Task: inverse folding
């Protein structure tokens, strides 16, 4: 058990959107920054996107993490250099103004007006080439838009962090390269002189002699990192788990929020699916931010997975996959989750509960999604409800319960946050308005954990904007 | 115990493969690839859900044994017995029973259809 000792000025734990942007911003300001990542440093083309190889390589625990509750909600986290940005679909939103207003008012977050975040959003958007798809829009997205238009609902194409190349026209699919953290902010961080260590798991933090000592593990080898300041950016589950292991517990891991998501597979008369792993980026915003509806990736694996609730229809799936696509509806879930460590386990226990009102919201979200699909011309809908007969027309929507039942509803999520909310209200918040942990010296959280509540839109834009704001604030006040 | 567990998982995977795949997808080669993926995924899981899956899988074995007695252990009849138990568990009123079948179905389908064009390929 050889031990390695490393010293640095600032240690950033976690290389996802929060960590990479923090590390990059601080290194660019001339600080000696070490970026620590538990997962491996993989090439962007190490596996096909959205494949089982990707799940094995880049997802924490093979993507098999349950938030225990009634119902249980499976969630996924990235575990590689770049974190969640390496596995998500790259949809970008700025934080809605009403969400920021709620955070300012209820959590007493200072300096969080739209104008405060504007320069940070602009910077991130430029680096990541955030833009609308200039090429042909996937047919599945056209269907959602058509359904929303027929119902008079607002919808929009959502920009993504993709760089497009080759001949560009609306008639053909544009060549696209996902601008993940490992392609953008991590290289910028290294160019600015930062150091990256991957494959090391941070076990514990200890405040000793005016500096933070971080104990890490690489295989059977221990690594100690001594830093003046530490930013914990390991995501909404791992960040509170690390802080709690280190004895820092006030308002930590007590308010996890998420976007519980229900899915529907839609069958149309015409062909809409080419099985290419492209993301149809349209969303219905009529009910935002309370309810958001959109299109999912409909690759072979995802389509087959979505249809596991209908084992008798596997032959139909193989016959009609070209006419099928997956759609989702997600709600702003409450901050009722808890993250706790379990003795002798590296995986924290995550609990999350939905109340009857939330189950009613999910039913409303599912019903609206189904309405949009029928308006778009879907002939049959397969909601992700076990033992539920397919819906064949709008009249069938009466069969949907007023509140979804925990017993047969299959939810999932990829959006988790709010486990260490920011703000000046000491009864609610774990960190201050700029991410500094209340009651701790030179210890910061700068990832999805500090979002006060579920934003109701894809959160990575918010995470990046706030992470950069906080990193700049730290750099401005470091002296 | 480990042998019983792996043996049970192997049979469950084979039967789930028959439900969600085609006769071609049940070839030995593909079956072993899928089985390996399922076993590897179980290794990647956090220990608590992994333990839950293992316990439920053993309960499934015991339940199959109780329903079919020693005939269940004998050659070809075992597959039929398992298939019936899988069907019974997939629509059980107990959520853990349904979740177990759903877990194996999800793992099998993920592996089987991992190739982005799998649905377009002949034989799937």
Result:
């Amino acid at each position: 058990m050889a031990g390695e000792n490393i010293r640095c000025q600032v240690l950033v734990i976690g290389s996802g959107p929060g960590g990479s942007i923090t590390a990059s911003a601080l290194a660019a300001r001339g600080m000696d920054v070490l970026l620590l990542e538990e997962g491996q440093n993989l090439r962007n083309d190490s596996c096909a996107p959205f494949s089982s190889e990707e799940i094995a390589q880049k997802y924490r625990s093979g993507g098999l993490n349950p938030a225990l509750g009634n119902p249980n909600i499976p969630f996924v986290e990235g575990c590689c250099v770049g974190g969640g940005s390496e596995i998500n679909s790259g949809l970008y939103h700025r934080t809605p103004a009403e969400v920021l207003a709620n955070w300012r008012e209820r959590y007493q977050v200072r300096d969080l007006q739209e104008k405060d975040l504007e320069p940070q959003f602009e910077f991130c958007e430029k680096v990541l080439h955030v833009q609308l798809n200039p090429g042909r829009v996937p047919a599945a997205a056209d269907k959602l838009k058509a359904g929303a238009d027929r119902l008079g609902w607002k919808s929009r194409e959502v920009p993504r962090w993709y760089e497009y190349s080759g001949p560009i026209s609306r008639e053909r699919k544009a060549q696209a390269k996902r601008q993940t953290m490992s392609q953008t902010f991590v290289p910028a961080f290294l160019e600015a002189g930062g150091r990256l260590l991957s494959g090391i798991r941070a076990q514990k933090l200890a405040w000793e002699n005016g500096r933070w000592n971080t104990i890490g593990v690489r295989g059977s080898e221990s690594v100690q990192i001594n830093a003046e300041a530490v930013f914990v950016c390991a995501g909404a589950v791992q960040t509170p788990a690390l802080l709690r292991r280190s004895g820092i517990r006030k308002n930590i891991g007590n308010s996890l929020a998420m976007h519980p998501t229900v899915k529907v597979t839609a069958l149309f008369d015409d062909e809409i699916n080419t099985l290419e792993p492209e993301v149809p980026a349209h969303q219905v915003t009529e009910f935002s931010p309370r309810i958001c509806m959109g299109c999912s990736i409909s690759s072979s694996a995802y389509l087959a997975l979505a249809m596991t609730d209908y084992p008798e229809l596997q032959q139909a799936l193989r016959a009609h996959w070209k006419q099928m696509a997956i759609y989702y509806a997600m709600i702003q879930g409450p901050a009722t989750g808890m993250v706790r460590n379990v003795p002798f386990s590296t995986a924290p226990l995550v609990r999350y509960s939905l109340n009857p009102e939330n189950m009613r919201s999910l039913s409303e979200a599912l019903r609206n999604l189904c309405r949009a699909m029928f308006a778009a011309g879907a002939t049959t809908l397969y909601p992700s409800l076990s033992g539920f007969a397919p819906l064949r027309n709008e009249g069938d929507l009466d069969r949907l319960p007023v509140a979804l039942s925990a017993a047969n509803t299959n939810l999932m999520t990829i959006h988790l946050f709010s486990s260490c909310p920011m703000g000046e209200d000491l009864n609610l918040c774990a960190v201050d308005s700029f991410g500094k942990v209340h009651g701790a010296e030179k210890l910061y959280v700068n990832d999805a954990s500090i979002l006060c509540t579920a934003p109701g839109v894809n959160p990575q834009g918010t995470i990046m904007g706030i992470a950069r704001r906080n990193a700049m604030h730290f750099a401005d006040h470091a002296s | 115990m480990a042998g019983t567990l792996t043996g049970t998982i192997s049979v469950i995977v084979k039967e789930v493969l028959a439900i969600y795949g085609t006769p071609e997808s049940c070839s030995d080669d593909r079956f072993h690839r899928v089985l390996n993926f399922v076993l590897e995924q179980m290794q990647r899981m956090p220990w608590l859900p992994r333990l839950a899956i293992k316990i439920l899988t053993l309960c499934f074995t015991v339940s199959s044994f109780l329903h079919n007695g020693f005939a269940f252990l004998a050659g070809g009849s075992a597959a039929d017995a398992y298939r019936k138990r899988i069907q019974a568990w997939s629509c059980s009123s107990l959520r853990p029973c349904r979740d177990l079948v759903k877990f194996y179905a999800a793992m099998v389908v993920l592996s089987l259809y991992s190739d982005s064009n799998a649905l377009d390929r002949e034989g799937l």
